[in-house]
Amino acid sequence: MVVINEQQICVHDYQKVLMMDAHFFKIQMPHYILNIRGQDIQIEYYDQKEIRLKGSVKVIEYDEDRL
């Protein structure tokens, strides 16, 4: 599940972060890959079930059942 507000994106029940830099995050979810693109994106908080990102997000997209 993804929760979005003005300052944060919270991703619940993620499996792992596949790729990350200040402009792009690729996150493995149970049945899809979540891609987040923007500027100055950084991890604000994470644990085994949730990751919280902050920054200027421009695009959120997903790919079903592909890596």
Show the helix and strand layout.
Layout: E1 2-4, E2 8-12, E3 16-20, E4 24-28, E5 32-46, E6 50-64
Antiparallel strand pairs: 1-2, 2-6, 3-4, 4-5, 5-6
Please provide a written account of the structure.
It is globular and about 25 Å long. The two termini are 18 Å apart. The relative contact order is 0.29. The mean pLDDT is 91. The chain is built from no helices and 6 strands. The chain is mostly beta strands and 67 residues long. It has a single domain (2-64), classed as Sandwich (Immunoglobulin-like).
Task: Describe the structure concisely for a colleague.
The protein has 67 residues and is mostly beta strands.
Structural features:
Immunoglobulin-like, 72% strand, 67 residues, 0% helix, six-stranded antiparallel sheet, single chain
Radius of gyration: 11 Å
**Stretches where pLDDT falls below 50 for ≥5 residues?**
none
Pairing-aware structural class of the strands and helices?
mainly beta
Number of DSSP strand runs: 6
